[in-house]
Write a structure and sequence with these properties.
9 helices, alpha/beta, Rossmann fold, 250 residues, 2 domains, 5-stranded parallel sheet, elongated, 9 strands, single chain, two-stranded antiparallel ribbon
């Protein structure tokens, strides 16, 4: 139930839908005053959600700072959250724009910062988790020992990532703390959820969206269609924290 509710809410958190809805409302509105107010509100939304300087400032503040691990420190496991892999219509896996999660996990393993890798996440079709060997095979192809890759192919949400990863680590007796590896944008919510689930984890954010607070003058004025497309991901994280707290999962 929670999975489907979260997906419906995420689908509604798209500023472009809001703007289009206001334009449609304005088209059918009868009152000249209402039309004018809708026009003003629509312009305000367009300015807010297409302004790169505003988006970058909020994202920069939202993302946790990069982490530098102490020299000589080794952790029993690194838990890397899924989302960096996608699948075509034939079920063939490939890496997407979040693949820095895979890259950083691989680096941590080869630098001997983590001994084991827990790849948490599944390929979800129609709300059901579908096991896949794509991620595990890619780690092995890049020099990770097969016995060092543990795979959770049941989880569909961040909460399930925490629950199933915890069970898996408990079964094999690996001692905490564990490194939690996910995109910087996703880390605040993931950290809350994992700690609520009782897992002692330390954050290792990666795949940063914004790394600077310095903007060019035109980024304050000119609209950006790219930024308009990026907002739903940040809004999803903000709404996710609220929803997880309501359901006592964060």
């Amino acid at each position: 139930m929670f999975f489907f509710v979260s997906k419906i809410i995420a689908a509604l958190l798209v500023p472009w839908y809001w703007i289009v809805s206001l334009l449609v409302w304005r088209f059918f509105a009868k009152s000249p005053m209402l039309k004018r107010r809708l026009e003003i509100f629509t312009l305000l939304l367009i300015f807010l959600f297409s302004n790169k300087a505003i988006y970058n400032s909020i994202m920069f503040a939202w993302q946790p700072q990069p982490v530098t691990l102490p020299a000589g420190t080794t952790y029993s496991a690194g838990i890397v959250l899924g989302g960096y892999e996608s699948f075509d219509q034939y079920g063939n896996g490939y890496f997407n724009g979040s693949s820095d999660r895979f890259i950083q996990t691989l680096k941590l393993y080869h630098q001997k910062k983590i001994k084991k890798i827990v790849a948490s996440g599944s390929h979800v079709i129609n709300g059901e988790a579908q096991p896949t060997t794509f991620v595990k095979n890619e780690f092995i192809a890049m020099g990770v020992q097969p016995a060092d890759v543990l795979f959770d192919d049941k989880s569909r949400t961040t909460f399930e990532n925490a629950v199933f990863s915890g069970k898996l680590l408990g079964q094999i007796g690996l001692q905490p703390p564990y490194l939690l590896i996910t995109s910087a944008q996703h880390m605040p919510r993931a950290l809350l959820v994992f700690k609520k689930a009782g897992l002692a984890v330390l954050p290792f954010p990666c795949n940063y969206e914004v790394r600077s607070e310095t903007f060019k003058w035109y980024e304050y004025l000119l609209p950006s269609g790219t930024v308009l497309q990026e907002w739903p991901y940040l809004l999803k994280e903000l709404a996710g924290i609220v929803g997880y707290r309501l359901f006592n999962r964060a």
